[in-house]
Amino acid sequence: MFEESNLDYGIIGNCISAALINKKGSIDWCCLPRFDSPSVFAKILDSKKGGAFEIITESDFDITQSYLKDSCILKTKFKNTKEEFEVIDFMPRFQDEKGHYHAPPEIIRLIKPIKGTPKVKFIYEPKLEYAQGTTSHENKENHVESYVDYPVHDSLFLYTNGSYNDIVNKKFQSLDKKRFFCISYNEKLIIPKLSDSLLDFERTKVYWFNWCSKTPIFEKYNNDILRSAMTLKLMTYDKTGAILAAITTSLPETIGEVRNWDYRFCWIRDASMVIRVISKLGHKRIVKNFIDFIVELIPDKAQKLQIMYGINGEQRLTEEFLDHLSGYKNSKPVRIGNAAYSQKQNDIYGILMDAIHAEIKEVKSDFKRTEEIWSIVKGIVWVVKNNWMKPDKGIWEFRSEDLHFTFSKVLCWVAIDRAIKIAKIVEKKDAVKKWNPIKIAIKKDIETNAWNEKVKAYTQSYGSDYLDASVLLIEQYGFIDANEERYISTVNVIEKELAYDGLLYRYKNKDDFGLPTSSFTICTFWFIKSLIKIGQVEKAKGYFENLLNYSNHLGLFSEDIDFKTKRLLGNFPQAYSHLALIDTALAFNSSS
After folding, report:
1. pLDDT given at position 360
2. Architecture of domain 9-212
3. What is the mean pLDDT of residues 520-545?
């Protein structure tokens, strides 16, 4: 853990929504009733206006934070020489008697006194609808109702066995017994009691224990793999099978700059990479749900894929600005929605096809939607055949001119290659014969135009001298063997030109916003895996363990790491970063 990460948050969730809790026990971010709803707590985006649920103590305490073993239940412990108590935070998730998953839009907070009688003030200040209007709080007979009427009506309900008056009036309370808080988006018809929250705690703990028990145990980096796997699970939306890129919006890639985006959506690329990795860990339900999500997105054979969708399959993700919020560390603007949804990125077809192929290859006879999948495969081939020669925005979503990006071209090759392999599995020989020439033509085009003899590497785009970390993936996707001279040379040149103090630039050419000052975390993981593949395992290990030290106190990663300060930056936690951590750790386990 690096001391100056500044994103010292733990994530709790239940695959419907999630919350971030800082290392002092303050709930600083949560959207209810689902991931992409307006926030009820957003202190992370504005320390004055955003709203939070804080814990203030009368005495000084040493505070430590950890997850309960094999769970996503967060424990924050307060301790000094005379007094001690702990706070347990979770969002309920468990199966009921009929096997249905119970995951209500609520947070449960348990307060357990351990030693002495600490005096604590609970600062409960939700600010609904992104704090755009004035949230009022009314002390009812058996709950506190918070509500707002602008820009729309919304409400939130708090239940506790403590004093509602002390909470509303922000008075210190003596912790002389166990307390519970239930923050619910829905008004409860049966008033919850402490025993209900304790039962939900035990059921949720069992759920996570069972989930973790299905994950293989690895000789190397097992704890890191498991924590990352659970974090990816928290970013799955159970209702549709969508997988989020992150649970936050507008946490900047660089403090004070404008690279602030809303990541509470499902990118086809990110999600497809997630299921490829999570499938290796045996969690097939996530894979099946995402494949179902894709099938529902493409009802018509001629329909092109967008690069991203809303978690309920929404196609329009109009970008708006919340000018009333100051932004994380005063980094404006705060955005909701994402204008990138309309971009054209040709690589998504190959990444999705790779994930589909991996699943069909493994469970062909059990794949209930094979015919629908086969229609999607043919549709993707049609799109790639007619578009692979065209430029696009590339994996990094450049907002300037379209280029012939090497990574996009290689993933077009992957799309056709995997389509051919799927055709062989489903015994469609005519398709194999028809598609092979396309695959050969794309391969020839890449080898002719993407290799730069002067640079001695595959470069970012055709005719460019610029390097790009995404090119490292061409071996992983089977376009080239790790022992081929061109690949070894590309890895070495990328290390020489893009590595900086143990981290990697994704590229160095100035983009729409200038030269990046932070490292895109996944790129360093890609590079480390590439080192393993070309036989430089010890060097890779040094890079990997150095990178693990830059996680926060709970082993969580955001999107970016500042090159100089090693501060975590960007949206958090980041699915990209954690899927790449798992993939790299698995490579170490396979290399021994």
Report:
1. 85
2. Distorted Sandwich (2.70)
3. 97
